[in-house]
């Protein structure tokens, strides 16, 4: 599902959800307390609660609040499909389940269920008691059949007959018709009918079509928008689907299935074919959650639980409508007064031509010095996309090499690679076909690229290639110049408008040689032992980060300037966290800016009183990763693709690049200053794991919105007069 939301696509939860393929590797020597880690799953649910709190916030534009409700629902779906499914899979198969809180897996699963029940019920109440009444007041009505007068019902009857009835498929359940397969995340109606002749009661299942709008529009009345949920409209025409039968009961239900994909790469010669087979099996994963409308009768519930092999704990009884992810549709309404103000990204000052009439020359701009990009404040289209498009069209460009983890439909990035290949350039695309929930799309892109003559490779066996790299080799006189891009986010023009990310464009030959060696390692058999300006996982990144943390610890103990500032999506890895605890104990000030999961406990006396943790959610999804080490007054700053998770450090190819320009180092430091400032709106993590929102000062005035302030800063930049 593609939306304009910073959270509302299939990548969000997948980006945040770790798997269970590695044991924790803490640095504990027995001196650190055993309860020093927060539970990962509960921390993820706390992240989704922060999303829900945005939906509860009346200061957010109304349609954005509805969007956050949809985001919460979509996130939770993926959490169950991946994280809960992975935990259950390991429990059911008898595999060890490492937990960083030292508790039995079944107890962890019970805690997840209790918290998820609480949050889903709160989610439903927010829609019913807050957002829906506000939508009504804004002349956007989500009606029920009982709200309609006779004229509306007649019109809806015509809509049902002409547009809905022909695509419905009622499925009976009886000795001749076994219980049907219920597809994951589909919305369904359970129907019990009685034959008036035989008095026999039968059960049927009716799937709500996914290829029709979730909300059916009613005729406008004096400019008031009115809709009725598709399932409600269908439910009130069941007599036409079961003619001659008496309708006794009908209820909504929805099943979530295990959709995690497990590929044994070392047991197959063809990864592409193995993945395609596994994607087919994904559709038939075991049920792990059953959502039902709160009016469902016990007889129907018992049948569903029996057929789906669902336990009481896995049943979620909620008020209709189920699946509030359908609220994404409201984001398409032309009501700018109920949305965030429209913003147009600026072109990076460093990429603007000296004269407005001049044509931008990306290569000349990069040659003048490293360029640090900050999306979405600075345009992806006029920077990264333009860089690759110019490379594809430039006759002096000899080769382009790029990683693709997630991209968008009709991607101009992919088209640029195809254009380059068709123009006779050597083009290498490393397509990660195992990117969760984007596997099928990436397989399609891989084949399209291959047909165009692009050299497509799929990375290293056993590792996902998650780094965001592009390398352009250009003939300039008698020399070859390397132009490089290293980013924190995907090469996806659509998400670049709502994902906050950093990227570095550079002509530094050191970086160019590093990327050349890394691409050779990924596409061939090279074993690279050392990089100059990159930190690369899985071989060196963990070791390098721990070494940097230990250096800051030593500096603090020696009385020298020290400090650690880390911005990531998730902070889970126990070894890194233990290193930060030891740094804190030595007196190192540690700032952690995390969007999602955080297993670190800040502010614990004797352990982490020098550590602060903040989370910022809002219009844009904070997605960049920054690692800032004070280094005795000579700051070392890295940006890149890696989070502090087992998978990123041990089972993925990740790359961080060191920033060399003092202005870029200062810019990242200023970002941290703003994020950690008490006057900036943020959630603060408490030692007990609670996230407390700080969004008003003592006088009740709103605190500074970091994203608004950052937009103001970037949009006010001007190219110096006479600069080229």
TrEMBL record:
The keyword Cell wall biogenesis/degradation does not apply. Residues 618-648 form the PLD phosphodiesterase domain. It comes from the Bacteria. Keywords: ATP-binding, Kinase, Magnesium, Metal-binding, Nucleotide-binding, Phosphoprotein, Transferase. Its EC number is 2.7.4.1. Mg(2+) binds at residues 406, 436. Pfam families: PP_kinase (PF02503), PP_kinase_C (PF13090), PP_kinase_C_1 (PF17941), PP_kinase_N (PF13089). It catalyses: [phosphate](n) + ATP = [phosphate](n+1) + ADP. GO terms for molecular function: kinase activity. An intermediate of this reaction is the autophosphorylated ppk in which a phosphate is covalently linked to a histidine residue through a N-P bond. The active site is at residue 466. InterPro entries: PLipase_D/transphosphatidylase, PP_kinase, PP_kinase_C_1, PP_kinase_middle, PP_kinase_middle_dom_sf, PPK_C_dom2, PPK_N_dom, PPK_N_dom_sf. It is an enzyme of class 2 (transferase). ATP binds at residues 75, 499, 595, 623. The keyword ATP-binding applies. Its cofactor is Mg(2+). Belongs to the polyphosphate kinase 1 (PPK1) family. NCBIfam families: poly_P_kin (TIGR03705), PRK05443.1-1 (NF003917), PRK05443.1-2 (NF003918), PRK05443.2-2 (NF003921), PRK05443.2-3 (NF003922). Catalyzes the reversible transfer of the terminal phosphate of ATP to form a long-chain polyphosphate (polyP). This is Polyphosphate kinase. It comes from Homoserinibacter gongjuensis.
